[in-house]
Amino acid sequence: MSDPFEVKKSGYGWAVFDRRTRNKVSPQVSSLRAAEDFCRDLNREARRRLRPCLCCGSPFLSEGPHNRMCDRCRRGADPFDRRQGLSA
Ligand SMILES: [Zn+2]
């Protein structure tokens, strides 16, 4: 699973590139660290997408591929939720 953005050398500095289009998406900076910070933010944004919930189908803001159910369904699917067990 690769991130859509990566830091590469650009001239005498560093910049963030889109892996798919190979376009430079940040200004060239002299600090590798600054470029990496920017890259991390872009990758985080790219992973946060509005996805339909696997369970009920309503769209929600997913944090990533591991996150495919909305909050309500995740709570409902929680094995430690004892709402049903209490009355037994
Ligand atoms: Zn749901």
Proportion in β-strands = 15-25%
Write the H/E string, N to C. Answer: EEHEEH
Q: How many angstroms does the end-to-end distance come to? A: 44 Å
Which distinct ligands sit in these coordinates?
Answer: zinc ion
Overall pLDDT = 84
Radius of gyration: 20 Å
Number of separate helices: 2
Task: Write out the strand line-up for the largest beta sheet, numbering strands in chain order.
Answer: 1-2
Largest sheet: 2 strands, antiparallel
Tertiary shape: elongated
Total strands: 4
Strand-pairing-aware structural class: alpha+beta
**How much helix is in the residues?**
25-40%
Overall number of structural domains = 2
Unreliably modeled segments? none
Oligomer: single chain
Characterize the structure shown.
With 88 residues, this protein is an alpha+beta fold. It has two domains: 5-47, no CATH class; 49-79, no CATH class. Helix content is 26%, strand content 23%. The chain has two helices and four strands, in the order E-E-H-E-E-H. It has helices at residues 32-47, 71-77; strands at 5-10, 13-18, 49-52, 59-62. The strands form two sheets. A two-stranded antiparallel sheet has the order 1-2. The N and C termini lie far apart (44 Å). Residues 53, 55-56, 58, 69-70, 72-73 line the site of zinc ion.
